[in-house]
Design brief:
This is SPOR domain-containing protein. By secondary structure, the chain is of the alpha+beta class. It folds into two domains: about 45 residues; about 70 residues, Alpha-Beta Plaits (2-Layer Sandwich). It contains three helices and four strands. The N and C termini lie far apart (about 75 Å).
């Protein structure tokens, strides 16, 4: 009789332990899934995509707009933009996905605009 009671007690304790372990692992799994979901949402809302731009000029406002106009006449297939980044004005062109693409275009642009450089930017 004592052996049967001992087996029942052991089985009950083992079952209880397995149930607690299972509940804990499900709880942890749900937390991990929730964190993954939160990270995906964050990434969609806060895109920090790296692009490459070609900077034609860095200096005063008047010259930046002159460079923009001259560039538009020379290379009508590209759209330059003037950006104010304290304390200087910058004339930039393009939002290339890879550095290689930006470098290829920069080689062409450097024939007319010697100071053109490729910069990495986050958007």
């Amino acid at each position: 009789m004592k052996k049967t009671n001992l087996n029942i007690l052991f089985t009950s304790v083992l079952t209880l332990f397995l149930c607690i372990t299972n509940v804990f692992s499900q709880s942890e799994s749900e937390k991990i899934s929730d964190l993954i979901s939160q990270k995906k949402t964050y990434n969609k809302e806060n895109k920090n995509t790296i692009v490459y731009k070609i900077q034609l000029y860095n200096g005063n406002e008047t010259e930046a707009y002159k460079i923009k106009q001259n560039f538009s006449l020379t290379f009508p297939e590209f759209t330059p933009e003037v950006v104010y980044d304290k304390p200087e004005w910058k004339t930039q062109v393009g939002k290339f996905k890879t550095r290689l693409d930006a470098d290829r275009v920069a080689l062409i642009i450097k024939e007319k605009f010697l100071g053109a450089i490729v910069l990495e930017d986050k958007i």
